[in-house]
Structures are given as structure tokens and as C-alpha cells.
């Protein structure tokens, strides 16, 4: 006799059907409108909630403010494994890492108070990643805060240069 042959029996999976297959769920349809894409990012972004929309609008106001004051915006929402920085800009030869904080009402507190010592350390670590990626560890660096206060249709932008330094101990 020949070698033993194992016989495999396949059963149809219970309740699992592939999209678009006969008897299965319908194939996914394209969205009626393409979702927004941030320029230069290639990533699709959909504002999640009112706070997220406020943050995006405030960052756009802050970037415009800095451009009007002679800064060159290098990155918006720079992300690294260690964190995220709202804006990275150049002011002459200085690389400026900017944290943008916004508030709709004064009852929510001063936007500057939201840049806690923990957040400062995270921004510093992220800045180190940014500088190392580009071989710019020799460059002068500054950490600024832009406080955006929104009151109805009016927006007030307060720029705080040298808001904290890389030796933040908090």
C-alpha cells in the first residue's frame, strides 16, 4: 500500500462573506465628497470636534501672524515619536518652535497657562527630534507661545517669545 493520505474537508465559513461577493455585504462606496487634505501632508484630516476645529483655526491664525511678522513657516503640526509641535518657523537664523493655545472665553483661563511644564518638556523633546532629523543641532533655538483668544468674530493673538527654554524643569 501507498502512503496514508490525509483528507481535508473545507466547510463554508459561517456568517463571513466578502464585500461585493454574491450574498455578501455590498462593496464599499466612495465618499460623495473627497475629505479635506492638508497641503503638503498627503494625509486626510477631518475635524473631529469643535475643540479640534478651534485648534486648527488658531494654528492657521498663528501661522499667518508669524508670516506677517517676517517668520518663515517650516512645518505645521510636526509629529515625531516623542510628540507634536504646532508650528516650526525660522526667525532669521533661529529655529522657533511654537506652541499655539486658544480659548473661546476668558472663563476657560489664560491660554498661556495651558502650556504646562510637562507640555514644555514634550515640546523640547520633539524639537530635539526635528533638529536631529535635519542635522541642525548646531542651530540657535527658541520656544515661543502664541496665545489666541477668540471672542465672537474677533481674534486676539499674543506672541510670547522665549516663553520657556530647553532646560525646563517643571
Automatic annotation (TrEMBL):
Q: Which InterPro entries match?
A: Restrct_endonuc-II-like (IPR011335), tRNA_endonuc-like_dom_sf (IPR011856), UPF0102_YraN-like (IPR003509)
Segments carrying the region annotation (Disordered) are 15-53
In alphabetical order, the GO MF annotations are: nucleic acid binding
Q: Which domain of life is it from?
A: Bacteria
Bias class Pro residues marks the residues at: 22-38
Matching entries from SUPFAM superfamilies are given as:
Restriction endonuclease-like
**Family of the protein in this entry:** Belongs to the UPF0102 family.
Its protein name is: UPF0102 protein G3N55_06975
Q: Which organism is it from?
A: Dissulfurirhabdus thermomarina
Amino acid at each position: 500500500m501507498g502512503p496514508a493520505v490525509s483528507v481535508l474537508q473545507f466547510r463554508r465559513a459561517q456568517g463571513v462573506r466578502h464585500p461585493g461577493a454574491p450574498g455578501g455585504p455590498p462593496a464599499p462606496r466612495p465618499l460623495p465628497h473627497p475629505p479635506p487634505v492638508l497641503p503638503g501632508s498627503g494625509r486626510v484630516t477631518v475635524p473631529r470636534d469643535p475643540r479640534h476645529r478651534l485648534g486648527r483655526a488658531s494654528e492657521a491664525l498663528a501661522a499667518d501672524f508669524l508670516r506677517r511678522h517676517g517668520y518663515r513657516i517650516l512645518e505645521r503640526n510636526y509629529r515625531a515619536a516623542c510628540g507634536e509641535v504646532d508650528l516650526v518657523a525660522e526667525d532669521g537664523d533661529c529655529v522657533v518652535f511654537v506652541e499655539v493655545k486658544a480659548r473661546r472665553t476668558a472663563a476657560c483661563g489664560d491660554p498661556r497657562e495651558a502650556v504646562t511644564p510637562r507640555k514644555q518638556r514634550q515640546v523640547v523633546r520633539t524639537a530635539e527630534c526635528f533638529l536631529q532629523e535635519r542635522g541642525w543641532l548646531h542651530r540657535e533655538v527658541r520656544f515661543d507661545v502664541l496665545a489666541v483668544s477668540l471672542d465672537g468674530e474677533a481674534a486676539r493673538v499674543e506672541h510670547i517669545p522665549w516663553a520657556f527654554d530647553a532646560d525646563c524643569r517643571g
